[in-house]
């Protein structure tokens, strides 16, 4: 049996020496040292040995096992180094080759317009206020002078989750929440940017989801004249000095009086850009403000509308398709 063990060691060392990959090396380990391997097969004959021979052969077998394990481990390290070297050679990069011109990103036109609007109003002393997109009917309608039976609710074809919870149809709930949080304190000067949702059929000018920015000012002595001056200042900063603006009578349940705001474009004529008005006394009262002491104005605009007017975009869907051919036009924005 001693001769068998020594011969097994020589054969194993010879075979392991010519192995060329780690998979084959693992096969050698199983072949010689596994539970059903050749070393185990030889040792099954130890029962035929005398008591004196058994410890000698057992010690030799353990020595050979340990030796072969070291040989296999050393070979494994050698093969791993060879494998790494081959990979480094195959993945070698020639740094002298001319580089591929990288694609340069740009700000999305809607984000650029949103940031510009925010900067303009922050420059006029406004703060940014935010609120939840999943809103209570109480804030979205009732506290804005739109009771359950109010016909103007039809203007907001809403996505209801339950009878009292819906996706907000405008950012006006943020105004109400802000007024409540202020607990009757003035001044209030905020703009409320965010996504809103209405059950519109998507086409070139409508989307079921769009961005809106609303503004609110509440203080003593706030007048329609201040609203006019604020909006004119915004329009000139957004569309250029000298841009003409006009106000047309309109109706919104939460403002009285209410107006539509247009700007004049030499090529396209008068263009509607936003709605505005003096905050309805009932809205102030429900928010905890005495309408006899305080007045305010509010306005709201769609960011998509402003973006389309500013950059002469004729289809709102272009703003959401992420078509690089379209977006590359705005790299200098």
Automatic annotation (TrEMBL):
InterPro entries, per the entry: aa-tRNA-synth_II (IPR006195), aa-tRNA-synth_II/BPL/LPL (IPR045864), Phe-tRNA-synth_IIc_asu (IPR004529), Phe-tRNA_ligase_II_N (IPR004188), Phe_tRNA_ligase_alpha1_bac (IPR022911), Phenylalanyl-tRNA_Synthase (IPR002319), tRNA-bd_arm (IPR010978)
SUPFAM superfamilies tied to this protein: Class II aaRS and biotin synthetases, tRNA-binding arm
Residues that, per the record, bind Mg(2+): 256
Primary enzyme class: ligase
EC number: 6.1.1.20
CC terms in the record's Gene Ontology section: cytoplasm
Cofactor comment: Binds 2 magnesium ions per tetramer.
Keywords annotated in UniProt: Aminoacyl-tRNA synthetase, ATP-binding, Cytoplasm, Ligase, Magnesium, Metal-binding, Nucleotide-binding, Protein biosynthesis
Cofactor dependence: Mg(2+)
Entry-linked PROSITE patterns: AA_TRNA_LIGASE_II
Catalytic activity line of the entry: tRNA(Phe) + L-phenylalanine + ATP = L-phenylalanyl-tRNA(Phe) + AMP + diphosphate + H(+)
Single annotated GO MF: phenylalanine-tRNA ligase activity
UniProt feature coiled coil, ranges: none
Any one Gene Ontology BP term: phenylalanyl-tRNA aminoacylation
NCBIfam families per UniProt: pheS
Self-association and partners: Tetramer of two alpha and two beta subunits.
Family: Belongs to the class-II aminoacyl-tRNA synthetase family. Phe-tRNA synthetase alpha subunit type 1 subfamily.
Protein name, as recorded: Phenylalanine--tRNA ligase alpha subunit
């Amino acid at each position: 049996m001693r001769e068998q063990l020594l011969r097994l060691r020589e054969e194993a060392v010879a075979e392991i020496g010519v192995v060329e990959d780690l998979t084959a090396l693992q096969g050698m380990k199983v072949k010689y040292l596994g539970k059903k391997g050749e070393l185990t097969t030889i040792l099954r004959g130890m029962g035929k040995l005398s008591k004196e021979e058994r410890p000698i052969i057992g010690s030799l077998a353990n020595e050979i096992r340990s030796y072969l394990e070291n040989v296999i481990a050393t070979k494994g390290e050698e093969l791993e180094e060879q494998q790494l070297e081959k990979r480094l050679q195959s993945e070698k990069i020639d740094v002298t080759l001319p580089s591929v011109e990288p694609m340069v990103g740009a700000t999305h036109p809607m984000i650029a317009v949103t940031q510009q609007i925010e900067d303009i109003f922050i420059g006029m002393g406004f703060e940014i206020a935010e609120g939840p997109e999943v809103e209570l009917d109480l804030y979205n309608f009732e506290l804005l002078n739109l009771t359950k039976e109010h016909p103007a609710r039809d203007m907001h074809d809403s996505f209801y989750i339950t009878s009292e919870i819906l996706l907000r149809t405008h950012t006006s709930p943020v105004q109400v929440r802000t007024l409540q949080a202020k607990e009757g304190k003035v001044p209030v000067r905020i703009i409320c940017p965010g996504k809103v949702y209405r059950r519109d059929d998507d086409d070139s000018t409508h989307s079921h989801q769009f961005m809106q920015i609303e503004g609110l000012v509440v203080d003593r002595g706030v007048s329609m004249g201040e609203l006019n001056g604020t909006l004119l200042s915004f329009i000139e900063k957004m569309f250029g000095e000298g841009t003409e603006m006009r106000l047309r009578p309109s109706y919104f349940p939460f403002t009285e009086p209410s107006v539509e705001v247009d700007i004049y474009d030499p090529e396209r004529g008068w263009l509607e850009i936003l709605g505005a008005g003096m905050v309805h006394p009932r809205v102030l009262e429900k928010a905890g403000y005495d309408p006899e002491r305080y007045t305010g104005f509010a306005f709201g605009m769609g960011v998509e509308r402003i973006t389309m007017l500013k950059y002469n975009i004729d289809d709102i869907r272009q703003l959401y398709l992420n078509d690089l051919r379209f977006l590359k036009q705005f790299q200098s924005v």
